[in-house]
Sequence to fold (293 residues):
Amino acid sequence: MMAGDLGLFGPESITWRVHADPILLISAPRALLLQALHPRAIAGVMQNSDFKRDPWGRLQRTITYVATVVYGTTAQAEAAGRHVRAIHAAMTAVDPATGERFRADEPELLRWVHVTEVDSFVTTAQRAGLGLTADEVDRYYTEQRRAAALVGLDPESVPGTAAEVAEYYAATRPQLATTPGAMEVLRFLVSPPMPYGLGLTPVRFAWWSFSALGVSLLPRWARRLYLLPGLPTTDLSATASAYALRHAMRALPRRVFEGPLYRSAMARAERSVARADAPRPRSATARGDWLTG
Fold:
């Protein structure tokens, strides 16, 4: 492992700026519910995943994967991508509408999961007050093509700007549907089994608030597919709630949210800056140390 390897993105990237914000935790429900609206995507999940038996383990694995891609070294990110590609390559599912068996690593499905995930990240951060410019949002989407390549997608086939993401959603929406699987995900997300015997504690109420905010951050068309209000007032209240939550989280010590991959990346970045700022030794000629025969 190269000590100075800053990974796929680095400290000058918009990706590091977005993912350093703890508000991204509430993007998970939004991304999951968007992904579940694709009939083939949710069929693949329901027929292969253990999310109902181990929802918290699955969530932790997803968080670790994203953190590895964003903050890990290049080698760590590429190894994580190979692992995910191998898992997807071994999975198949049956389309409930056609009876056709399909692979979990179909580009269409990988692209849907990628776009809904990165869109949820940056949209949540923006609505919570991160304050990226339009150009910076576009840069984020463009940078995330590197993450798309890790799971086997052609980066050029992935939307790389906000306008391209909007066009992609518009083109994909006719394929989306409120399937029984999608509704099951919604019900499970709202009231999952709590770990460590926390089901009858205030943690349950905190989770309800957390998941409700994630749901309310969905696009209006997605909320309507889930038979939920698609009103502008819902958008306004969700944005205000996300903004308030972000500022409350920022009042907490940073170490509460900093994982080992993040801390390791920050340490590598500091060493890289220190090396760049260190005075370079002058050459022998510059010092006047002429060699004589």
